[in-house]
Amino acid sequence: MKKRNRVMNLFYIPALILFSIFVIYPLCKGIALSFTNWNGYSQTYKMVGLSNYTRMLTDKNVIRAFINTLIYGGMSTLLQNVLGLALALFLNQKFKGRAVTRTLVYLPVMIAPLIMGYVMYFFFSFNNGALNDLLAVFGKEAVDWLSDGKTAVAILTIVNSLQFVGISMVIYLAGLQGIADMYYEAADIDGATPLKKFRYVMLPLLQPAVTSSVTINLIGGLKLFDIIMALTSGGPGYDSHSLSTLVHRTYFASENAGYASAIGIITFLLIAVFSNLIVQYLKKKEVEM
C-alpha cells in the first residue's frame, strides 16, 4: 500500500513543476523587484530597500485604489450573494421555463469580463449611450455617468456583481437541492412559517454554500481588473482604479516596475489575508450552526 502511495505521489510532480514556474517563480521575482527602482525596460537597476513600500503610505493614488479595492470586493460580495440566494430560492421552485431562466441568469458568467466591460461602455456612454438615449425619450438631459469617481466605482461594482451573480446562484441552488425534504416536513409539523423555515432550516444547512460563494466572490472582487480597464481605465484620473489596474498603469504608463511590483505584492497579501480570515470565520459558523 505504501509503495502504491509513493507511485501515486509521482503524478503530482508535473503539477508542482508548472505551479513553481508560473506561480512561485513570478511571485519570488516580484518580491525581489519590489525592492528596486527598475523601470521595466532597462538592463540595470539598483536596490532601494523599503522605499517603494514606505512611499505607498503617502501616495494618495495608492490609498484611493486601496479603498476602491475594498469597495469592489466587499460590495460585490454582498450584492452577488444576496441576489444569488434570492435567484436560487426562486429558481428552486417548479415552473414552466425554469431551465431556460437558469441558463439566462448564468449566461453572463460565460462572457469574458473585458467584453462585458465594452458592452457596458456603450450602455453608459455619454454620447449615444443606450441609457442616455432612454433618458432622451422621456425628455431628460444626458448624464455623463462615468465622469464622477464615486459614480464610476458604483457602476463598476454593479456591473461586476450582475455579471457573476450566476456563480452564486448555482452554488446556492446546489445547496438548496441538497437539503433533504425531512427537514421541511419537520418544520411543517412544528408550524413554522416560510420565514422561519428560511432562518432556521435553510440558512444553517446552506452555510457550506455560503462559505464557497463568499470566498469566490470576495477574491474576484478584490482582484477586479478587466471591467475597470474596459469601462473607465481607472478614470476619471485615478478615481476608479483598483490595486490591480494601478499596477498596470504604474508599470506601463509610468514605467516604474519596481513600484508596481510593490503594489502587486501588497495586493497579493490583501487578497490572501482577507480571504483566509473570511474562510476561517465562515468555517467556524458552519460548526456553530
What does this structure look like?
With 289 residues, the chain is mainly α. The chain has one domain: MetI-like fold, CATH 1.10.3720.10. The protein has 14 helices and no strands. The longest helix has 32 residues. The radius of gyration is 23 Å and the shape is globular.
Annotation keywords:
289 residues; mainly alpha; MetI-like fold; 0% strand; globular
What is the fold's blueprint, element by element?
Elements: H1 2-9, H2 12-33, H3 51-56, H4 60-91, H5 98-106, H6 113-124, H7 130-137, H8 149-177, H9 181-189, H10 194-205, H11 207-222, H12 226-231, H13 243-253, H14 257-288
Helix pairs in contact: 2-14, 4-8, 4-11, 8-11, 11-14, 13-14
The tally of strands reads: 0
Q: Characterize the largest beta sheet: strand count, sense, and whether it forms a barrel.
A: none
What is the N-to-C succession of helices and strands? HHHHHHHHHHHHHH
Tally the helices: 14
Say what the CATH topology is: MetI-like fold
Large-scale geometry: globular
Under the CATH scheme, which architecture would be assigned? Orthogonal Bundle
What is the domain tally? 1
CATH class identity:
Mainly Alpha
Strand content: under 5%
Mean pLDDT: 89
Low-confidence stretches: none
Ends distance: 38 Å
For CATH, the homologous superfamily is named as: MetI-like
> Helicity, in percent?
over 70%
Q: Output the radius of gyration.
A: 23 Å
